[in-house]
Structure formats: C-alpha cells, structure tokens
Amino acid sequence: MAKKWGSLIVLTFLFLHNVFAISTKATAESTSELKAPAITFKILTDVTMAPLLKQAAERAKRRAVASDQLIDPTKMSKEYTSFRDRFINAKSPDDVAREVAFLEKGYSDFPLDLQYFAAQMIPIKAFRGIVYRMVPLAEKENITHSALLTTVQGFVEQMGIYIPKDHAKALLDYLLSPYVTEDNSIVTQIKSSADLQRYVAQEVIPMTSNAIFRLQEIQIGNNDVIWDNTIIYGNTAFLDDIRRYRIIADVDRYAAIAHLHSALAHLCFLDAYNLDRLSELLKDEGKLVGLDGFLAKKIEGATSLDRAEVMQKERYEKLFVTTNYANTKEWMALSFTNLEQSIRNIRLVWNETKNRPAEEFAILDSTKVIPWEKDIEINLSIAEVIMEGKAQIRSAVSGEKLTINLPGFFENPPKDLKKLLPIVPANWKKTDRYAYLKLPPNVKNPNNRSYDDLEGNPGTNKKDFQYRNYYHGQAKEWNLDAYKTLFPELASGKDIKKAVRILSETWNSSQVTAISFMQ
Amino acid sequence: MNLLERFEALLLALYQASSRHPRLIVLFFILLSFFFSFFIPKLFFHINTENLVDKNSLSSNRLEKLQQDFPTKNSLYLFFHSPTPFVGNTLCTIDSWLKAQGRHNTHISAIRSPFFLRRPQVNNELLFYPYLIPPPCLKENRDKVYDFSLIDQSPWRQILTTKAGDFFGVEILFHDTPGGSQFGKFDPAILRAFKHEFDSFIRNTLPTIKTDFLGHMGYFHYGIEGLAQTNLLNVALILLLIFLCKLAFGTYKSGLLLTLTLVMMGGVLYGAMALFGSPVDTLNAGLFLIVTIAVAEDFFFLSVWQLQHPKDHEDLFVKFLVPCFFTSFTTIIGFGSLCLTDLTIIQRFGFWAAFGALWEWLLIFFFLPAFLQLFPNWKIWTDQRKARFYKFSKRILLRQLPSPLIRPLIILGCFSLFLLFHLKIADAPFKIFPQDHPFRAGILRIQEKSGWQVSFDMIFENKDDQVFNEMIMQKLANDPLISFVQNPYEIERYYTQDFPPLTQKLILREYSWTTDYKRHKSSQGQLHSTIFGRENSIEDFSQLIAKINTWCENGKRCYPTGDAISFAEIAMQIPKVLIESFFYSVFFVTAILVFILAQTGHGSVRNIFATLVSSLWGPSIMILIFWAFGVSLNFITCTFASVLVGLTGDNAVQFIFAARRKNISVGIVEQGVSSIHIAIITFLASSVFLFSYFEAMRTMGLLTATGIVIMNFGDIWPLKKLLS
Description:
Strand order of the largest sheet of chain A: 1-2
Radius of gyration of chain A: 28 Å
Mean pLDDT of chain B: 87
Mean pLDDT of chain A: 84
Largest sheet of chain B: 4 strands, antiparallel
Largest sheet of chain A: 2 strands, antiparallel
Number of strands of chain A: 6
Oligomer: heterodimer
Structural class of chain A: mainly alpha
Low-confidence stretches of chain A: 1-30, 509-519
Number of strands of chain B: 10
Strand order of the largest sheet of chain B: 2-5-1-6
Number of helices of chain A: 20
Shape of chain B: elongated
Strand content of chain A: under 5%
Number of domains of chain B: 3
Distance between the termini of chain B: 30 Å
Structural class of chain B: alpha+beta
Helix content of chain A: 40-55%
C-alpha cells in the first residue's frame, strides 16, 4: 500500500511539475523578432583574397627566429608592458573590469602589440558573470544543471591547481560572480532560452564582430609583436625568461579571426530557431539514456528512432522551428557568411604556415602541421568548394558521388529543423527489441530448457532464449523534401544514409556540414 | 735607361735576390703549394646548365623559381627500347622493379610512369579512376602484346610512349641530398649506385631491352663521369709531356722538371679555386690541360736554348727572364681578356687560366733556378745527342716559302679577321658529349621515336588566364621547331569531357590533389607547360625565345625557362664573347708588342707592321678555318681565339728580345728553332685532348693543335717575308 501511495505522490508531483513547466514556457518571450545584426567586419572575397595570399606567400619566406634569446623584450611597447604589469596584479573582478574598460576606452591610441591583445580581450566584457547569469536556465533541468555545475566546479578546481595566481582567480571570479551594473542593479540573469538567444544576439555577437573588425584593421607585417606568457602565469613565472616569449605574426592574427568567425557562425545558428523547451528536451533525452527523472526505467538504450520520437512530441512543436522565417533566413545567412569567412581566413593561415620555416617560438609552428600537409590541403579545398555552392563530393572508398549544396541549405533553411530527423514509422516499437536463440533440439540452455519447450510448453519463459536485437530502432528513412536543399539530387529519403556515409568517406566534408548531427 | 730597361733591372734584381736564398725560395713555393693543395678536396664541381648561368641573373632566378614552384627538379628519364612490341611480362618486370625502387630507394621523390596514368570513368553514381593502360602485372595481361595507342590519344602522347609499343619511358625525380655534395645539391654517388643497379637489372633480367639514361640527372651523371676522366687526362698529359721532353730534349730530367712546376701550378690553381669558392665547371674542367699547353712554352724556350748552348746554363734564366715574362704576360692577357666578357663562366675560366699562367712563370723563373741551385746535378736537363727534333726543326726553319705563296697567305690572313663576325654558332647541352656517347645516342633515339630532342618549360604568370595562355601554347605548337606542347588545360579537358559540370568540378578538384597537377599549376597561381622541341638548335632556339618574349610582353605574362633555354641564352652571347675577348686580347697584345718594339729599338713602322700582321695572322687563319670548315662555336671553343692571340704574341716577343740592337730576322734565326720545337711538342701534347670525354674539349684540342702549328708558321714565315 505504501508503495502505491508513494507512486501516486510521485506521479502527482510530476504532473504538477510539467504543468508548471508548460505554463512558464508558454509565458516566455518569443525570440522570433530577434533580427540578425548588420555585418560590421570586412568581408573577404576572391578579389580581396588574392593580394592577401600573395602577402602571405611573401611573409612565409622570412627567416625563423633560431633562439628565444633573439626575441627582444625591449621591443614590447611601454603601454603593453604597463598594462601587463597592472593586469597580473589584479586582485578582484573589479580590477579586471577596470582593465577591460581601459582597453576598450583607449584602444584606438594603443600601439600595435597592445591593440592585438586588446582586440581579443575586450569581448570578455560580454562574459562577465556569465556563470551567475546562466544559473536560472541551467537549473531548470537536473541533467543540464548537473552537467554544467560539474563542469564549472571542475574548471575552477583546475584553475586553482594549474594557475594558482591572484590575477587568474580575479579573472575567474570575473566570469563566475554576480556584479553590480552601471545602473546600480545586480546584473540580470538568463532565465529562458529566449533570454539566452537575446544575450547572444545583443551582447556576444556584437562584441565578437567588433573583435574581428579590430583584428582585421591591425597589420603586423615586420613589426615586433611579442606575447608574454607572464600574462597567464603571473609575475613569478619565467624568472629566467626561458620560453617566456612568443612571436606573433599576421598568420596568428588570421588564425584568431578564423576562430572568431567560426564561433560567430555557431552563435548565429543558435539564434536562428526557437529554442523553447530545449532544456526539457535534454531532460527527455536524458531519460532515454537513464539519466534524470524519478521513475526507474529499464535501460533500453537511446536509438535513433527513440530520440527522434522524443523530439517529435507535441510539446516540442515549437522547438527548432522558425516563427519569423525572414529573420531565420537572415541569421542563417549571417551564420554562413561567418562560416565562409572562417574558411577563407584558414586558407590564409594555411598558405602561410605550410611554407614557413620551422619556428619554435612562433605561435603557429609549421613543423607541427607539415606532416599532415596533404590531408589539410585536401580538407581545406573541399571545405572551400562546398562553401562556393552546389558541389559534388566523392567517397574515397566506394567512388560514389554526392551532390551537396551547403549555401543552398543556408539560403533556404528548413522552417522546422526537426524535419531533418528520421521518419519514425508508426509501428516501429512493435518490432521486437530482442532476438531469440533457436537452439538445436538436443541442446539446452543453462536453465535446462530446450527451444522445443518454448513451443510446446506455455510456462517456459521466453526470456530464457532472448538476447538483444541491436538492429532495433535504426533510422531507415528521412523526409526527402527537408533534405532537398542540402542534397538536391537524392532520389529517395532512404538515401540519406548513403549520403551520410559518402560524407564520412570524403575528406572532412562531414565536419563542414555537421551532417552527422542530423542523425 | 728607358722604361723597359728599368723594368728589366727590377726583374733582374728580384731574380738575383731570390737566387741568394734558394732554400727559402724553394721552401716558400713548396709550402705555398701544399697550403693551397690542402683546399683541393673542398673544390666544387658544377655540371648542369643551372650552374653555368650567372647567379642572380633573370635566367637563374627563373630556373630556381621553376624548381621551387613545380616538382620538376632532379629529373631522370629512363627509356626502354624493345626490338618487338612489349609484352605484359616484360612490362611487369620493369614496372615491379621501378615500384620497388620507389619504395626502397629513399632518394627517389617520385616516379612518373605511363602505367600510372589514369582516366576518370563514371558508372551510374560511381566515379573512379582506372588505369589508362591495363596493368601489365595482372595475370590476364601477362601475355598480352601492348601498344600504347590509348596514351597516343591522350595529352601524354609523344612524351613517354609511342603508338608502336616498342618504346616507353619513365621519369624519376630525386630528392636533393641533405647537406649536398661537392657537385651541388645532389650527390652523384647516389645516381651512380642507382645506375649500377639499373644496369645490373637490365643485363640480368631483360638483356634484349636497350635503355637510355637521360634527362637532367642523366646529363649530370655522365658529366661527372667526364670530370673524373678529365682528371685521368691531366695525368696522361703529364706522362705524355715527360715522354715528349725525352724525345725533344733527350732526357727524362727535362720532363720531370716541367712536371714538377706543372704539378705545383696545378695544386695552387685548384687550391685557390677551392679557397675562393670558384667551382670547376664544364668549361674549366680542362683548365689544367689548356694552361699547361699555353704556359709550358717558357720551359721549352729555356730547354731549346740549353740544347743549343749546353755550356751557357748559368745565364739561361737571366737571358729569358724578361722575354718570358712578356710571353707569359701576353698569354695572361689572352686569358685575362675573357674576364671582360659578360658571361661569368667564361670570366671565371679566363681569370683562373691567367692566374695559372702567372704562377707557372713564377715557378719557372724563381722556383726552378732555386731548385737547381739546391740540386746542381739537374742544372743540365737536356742532351743534344739524344734530342730528336732539333735537327728537324733547324732544317724547317731554314726553308723559305715561295713569295707567290706567302703574299696571298698574308693578305688572306688580313681579310680573314672580318670572318669573325660570320662564324656559326651551334651548341646544345648534350653536345658536350661525343656523337657516339650513350647520352647523345639516346637523345637521337628519342628524337627518332617521339619526334623530340629537347624540352623546355613555359611559365604563365596567371593560370586562370586560359585564353591567353592557350593562345601562346598554340603559337608554340605551330612553330616548326616545336614537336609537341603539353597543354595543362588539355589534360583537364581530357579528364572532364563528356561529364556534367558538377562532376567536372569534382574531377578537377581531385586532380588538383595529385602530384601531376602540381607539375602544371603552382600554389602561387602560375601555370607550367612543358614544350618539346624537335631539335636543340641554338640558332633556331634564340629566334624562338625572341618570339616568345614578344608574345609574352617581355616576360610580364609568361616566359620560357629550363636548362635548354638558359643554355640558349648563354649560347646567344657567344658571338659577343668571342668578338669582345678577341678584340680586347688583340688590343692589349698589340700594345705590348708595340711597347717592346719601341723600347728595344725596333720601333720602325715596318717592324711594327710586320710583327703585328704576322702575330695576328695565325688567329686570323684559324678564324678562316672555322668559317671554311663550318666549325661551329660553342661556349668552350669561343674562348679559343683570345687564347691563341695570347700565345701568338709569345714568339714575336722572343724574336724581338733575341734581336736586340739587331734585325728582328736575327731573332727569328736564334729563337725560330724554339718556336718550331714548341709547335711540335704542343701539337703532339694537344693530342691528349682527343681522348677527352667531352666533345668540346676534343674540338678544343684539335683547334689548339692546328692553331699552334698555324700560329708558329705565321710567326716565322710571314714575318720573315714582311721584314724582308
């Protein structure tokens, strides 16, 4: 009896919880009116790339620094060293905030080395107190809460072990702690997916775009820009100066730009679709794999169809769906632009790096990548061609061709990303999750039962002969229409599997299209 | 005391000072010789055309860029000839051996074989790249008789195969040797070992197959062989000179003394070259031979005089000190005039030859007397009783040539000078080898089978400027000199024709990952096309280069490069080098002769006219011979004229000094025997050149031998006539 009551209480709680969740989600603001910001960085085209590639080739011919004793720290500007000294003496998040504000305010008057540092440091402003701000959203579901909390705690512990410095702790606190804003209020928290998307759109993306623009404006050329590792490890590190400094060149600048573009591409994608109930979905998906939820469930694994089925529940009707298609298209276009710009900047980095002499004291040392030169070159060329428009790729294993149109996909993105999920057949669960071992007549199982007993003896337990059917729950067909923009020449929804295989057998293309996610 | 007398006094004072310290002088020269010889192992040898081109010149920069931007460097072509069309089994044996080499020989960077050629094929949704010709090692192809008709219809036709199927070639690229070698960036020992293995493989496995070892590395290999043989030739010349001295002067002592000075000169010469980083190249490979022939005459003048005046040995060196200085000086000027030309390789040769001549004079007039003081038994190194040529030379000298013959000859000599502007230039890298040399024979076989003899490279600055680039390639293809143009765009069309646009792009992309693509298109945006020429005729090539320069807007949009082009560019400068060096040489030698004539009391117009005309008669007649017999000039033989002028003045100087305060005719009588002796010995010694590995050196030997005879004839009989 007690057991029954217990179950009832739990069920009631779950019901109430869900109702509450639905009601709170329903009141959350929609993000459909979030518009993609205008592009504030310079766009590289074939025309503008040509001279940059030539410059990269010229720079690659320069001689390498043979010894770190040849790096001349006196070439660091006074402003840079002065900032460094203040920064590594920071004791509190406010000290860090003051230095970040200093960087932002005086940026245009800084010498080259400090500008290079500042351009990449200023965006941290958008992340002040990010952990505190994310707490309400993270706490919504146990699975996300637990994972994020563990990650943050682990990170904080590791920082204490590996960089036990006051300025490192100050920087960490800058990211972890709440703070009082200019209008004397505690910084607002991110309570919903919509808040998160708004935060990304209004704070992170502008900061990152600005960082890209600033890096684009910097021309290092033959100037000495030196990175001082004490900025990370503090003023008690590198007392003998050995391995303290690194040479920074334009190639590193392009690498930084490529990285920021790549981050922006993902952030824009994040803002293109409605993410309401994402945390709930994660919880539901968690249940599938035996995490979260109160009711113990037999572990059955989370097959493709299991996961697709969860996502296609009615309650997730608006998740991953556009509510303003024009805005979605703009976000996706911006995402693609950043993806493409990232690839173009990687090309600049690669062309220079592969031809550079080995240089131990460069940030990008060619000796670390040259062994993979052919792979990198091929991967990059495929990435570039996929960015250009409709293209064919080929399985290096079977020789099968696949036509892919990544720009087409970004130009006409699906209105509902869930349409990309595999089709869940109505009766798929009826197919048995188990197979049965049909023993020969004279062979008995450990319970001394023969297979004939199963046929003739109703009391025989079927489980005595069963083992798991690992083929159960596989995706077999997809919605062809949803994939038509991405794979325009596929004949059947069943061919998505083949397309995915060809992508995986083609150099790096799967990474570019992130198609494996769609499974 | 006039200027000459003051100079004589100065030289004499130097000589006497050295005579007072014979031990010190001998020790000084020996130590110096040892010091320089110490550097000889560090001597660099440059064989290939890229090393003949002036460093930092446009041609050199283009060659270097070609090697940097396109994987074409250190290329060896192996060609296989079968009496009948190849069968699968034979091809399989070759193919397997080559693949094994590619896997196990770490010096090989790539192999291009007709068996590696592929062509895209689309079958439903599949795209794959089967071999263009069936792999010979497949069981079903082992007994198959092969023809290469499929390659004949492809963009690789005429390069490595012919339709008939009895001939095919492969290209093997080698890595540079880490650390390089004395011979440049590559160590020839690697190639020698490879060739040895290759020859053994063919000899033991496929004895009926004939092979050719060609290309840049083939040339390098045989060039190094030639250099090694030239070293043997140097030894042979020394031995021959010892033998000839025994005949001419009656003793071995004479030959040994000459050898001593020559060996010391050679040690200092090559040691100094090594010390100052001056390499041995195909031109100065014969430096020792040429300098020896040119400078040994001082010793011969001394020896003939000693032969004539055996009791006069105490004053021997004093008597010849100044005349021989001037004979050496004219020789130095002859060689030195080459330093005023525009080609570094010729400047280098001229400088070191002049240095060698100067050093030999110092050895003969300072080291040798001191040495003889220390070893008095060697003071008389001639024996008239045993000398063979003496009476013969005397008889010849007394002969008078009839006036009707000598006058036209003099006039002919005067006018022949103008033929200098009409000499034929014919040169090609492979022509340094004799006609029957395997390299040259191989080139001719390739020409017979594939219709090309030489290849060069065209670089187009913008690979995307297809219309312009193809227009130039078409113009080249239409040129009668060109047999075949490998058009990179044609390869792309060949790969993509009949396929839909997207598949074409896919194929081109996958092609761009191949080594073959990198041969044609650089990451810097340039296009490389290989052009195959029917013949390696420099005259035609220079015209073609001029045309290409016009088409390419003087190198702005495209330019030709490669060994053949660089060589042609050198060869095109040959007439200028010849004329410049000849006239510089004539000018300086004339000035010296006039100075000596004036200072010795022979400054009458008649004497000056007679001396100058007779001195220049020899070289002029040689120019006539060049012209009449169609002897073509190359970068080696073009140095000949100035060398000859330098030598020519020598006899005149000896005659003038021998005839001080007398008629020059007296000097001819006194020193004429020496001149004839020298002519005979040098003529015979020059025969060593005929055994040279290099064709140009053989020609040079023949020319030297002929030139010496004619020059001595001119120095004696026309002079006699003109003075009378």
